[in-house]
Amino acid sequence: MTIVITGATGNVGSVLVGTLADAGVKVTTVSRGEGPAGVRHVRADLSEPESLRPAFAGAEALFLLVSGAGAHVDADALFALARAEGIARVVLLSSQAAGTRPESASHAPLRAIEASVREHVPLWTVLRPGGFHTNAFAWAESVRAHRSVAAPFGDVGLPSVDPADIAAVAAEALRGDGHAGRVYELTGPAPTTPRERVAAIADALGEPVRFVEQSVDEARAAMLAFMPAPVVEGTLAIVGTPTAAERRVSPDVERVLGRPPLSFADWARRSVEAFR
Questions:
Q1: Taking residues 64-92, what's their average pLDDT?
Q2: Spatial distance between the Cα atoms of 244 and 157, rounded to a whole number of angstroms
Q3: pTM of the prediction?
Q4: CA 262 to CA 239: how far, in whole Å?
Q5: Smallest Cα–Cα separation from 183: which of 126, 112, 255?
Q6: Domain holding 112: CATH number?
Q7: Could you list the residue range(s) of the whole structural domain that residue 20 is in?
């Protein structure tokens, strides 16, 4: 079996590539630049579906992760090409908000890609994770330099998920039976607040880390430096005024993997060198 992996150098994709390769699965990675060592890599651009043909040739399954909000992807053309090349199974990494905020403009492109995969792919699975534990890497520079973190909504809790758990669920869905036509909502084992996540990083370091609560305007200004405005507003809405569904701990990671999801504290201990 050959599986095509997009986003192979990211927090989810890099773990997924290693998991599949260690299991003896043939992997082809796709990106516009260099790929990970040890597996076949094809340079291609998701915004130009025809460039994916060499990667898709001979493959049976695809893990699709689109960068940004996915507005640049012609999903109908991409999935039609995949089907024409013999790919019958696709695992799409979407977002929890595609389901919890159906009117959100920031997630409209992902909802369109979800609709397209259902239409064009016989064996589709959609993964909808909430926030990633690894979003805390954005704090690494200030922790290293000042032993402090600035963030908004310090006492609003959400059950963020470990990308390693997303990758593990994706690996099961790409290779196993019983996952076609399923939408999995992926969360961690319990809600944590920004203040609690900073405390977990401090515990992993064995040193105090100060939490500084930002105003909404301060957070918006910082986020606009690297995120489009609709995505900033959508993100602030989720982290500031989450719905009951966004606060809920989903059972799907444990259902698929047969073990509880990894906690933020687990991730902080494994990732502590980034904050030293």
A1: 89
A2: 11
A3: 0.95
A4: 20
A5: 126
A6: 3.40.50.720
A7: 2-275
